User: Fold this.
Amino acid sequence: MSIPENPINSSNKDSIEFTEEQIEKIKLIEAEKTELLNKVVSGNIENIKDRVALILNNSNDARNSDIELAWSYWQTFEDNILQGSTISKEQMYSLTRISSLTRIRAKIQNEYKLFQADDEIKRHRGVLEEDKKQDAISDKPAGMGMYSVYIDETGKTQAYLSVGSLWVLSYNYSTILSHKELTNWKKFKEITYEFHFAELSKNKLDDYKEFFTLFLSKHPDVGFKLIVINNMGIKGKGTAITDLTYHLLTKGVEHENSTGRAPLPRYLQVWIDEEEKGSDQLKLENIKERLTSQKIQGLYLGQFSAVASEGNFFIQAIDIFTGAINRKLHNPNGGNYKDEFADFVLSCLKFNISNIDTENNTIDRSKVFNLSDF
Assistant:
């Protein structure tokens, strides 16, 4: 039995033979990778592997250095033991061993291929692919921050096509606390459903309002950005969404950098709601390739992946935002519960829908609206 090396861009002739046992192992690794990625990007951190992955996701220094990884891990999760900038012998016995953190880091980077170290570091560790060894250069500055962007689109079959994004500048212990608090709130309210604008019903209106308010209170530093195009004359909706997403990201990075809210250098990570795995990844790879070709000084590209919306309040929040925009664009004078909720969302963000140029039908000239300072 054989499977292609890369299902996106390889043909059947470029296949490798695998035994049934190897295929089962590949499937297991892929399932573990998907589960870990979904946990990290949602803040649903439960065990030591999740915690190591969270550190790696948030710090390029930790990806490159096990000392940096250990120090960040201790500071974040074991600050009750690590007190100050020196470590005593007694503390060393109580802190999680560096060897344990290193072993988990290696599994995440080498088996799951997540949160990779720089090529120079990989070469030193002996895990860099042969065809990259001659080009391995470590030119990323230490202490880089990140842009973690959650994206959703709406209006493919309507008059206006919109792509919205939510920009998160760090994952840390407060991200974990926020996820726990929102999860506990749902349990207290006996809410078993996810929050998606399309699934809003009249009896859920108050809970939707409370969720969005709570989300904003737990994440006061997030930013919302939006790009809209008139759908008239656009035939390839998938291509249009890819183009809009690319422009949203490039202009969004420019805004974050130029305003000083989150200046470069930074890593850019992009997350979309998982729909169709193959097409999702192809779209993201196309966007990543276009961003790479721009060679934006100080911008480094990280993980671009489709993730599950279940348990991910960032994905659900951006779904609500884009749904609210879509509602007001297509039903500006509506008066039912969905219109009420759309007004509520935009009011929370202090955004006036009339600022959008609905006559615009040129993607390259589309304007990105920034709602970073609500």
In short: The chain is about 50% helix and 15% strand.
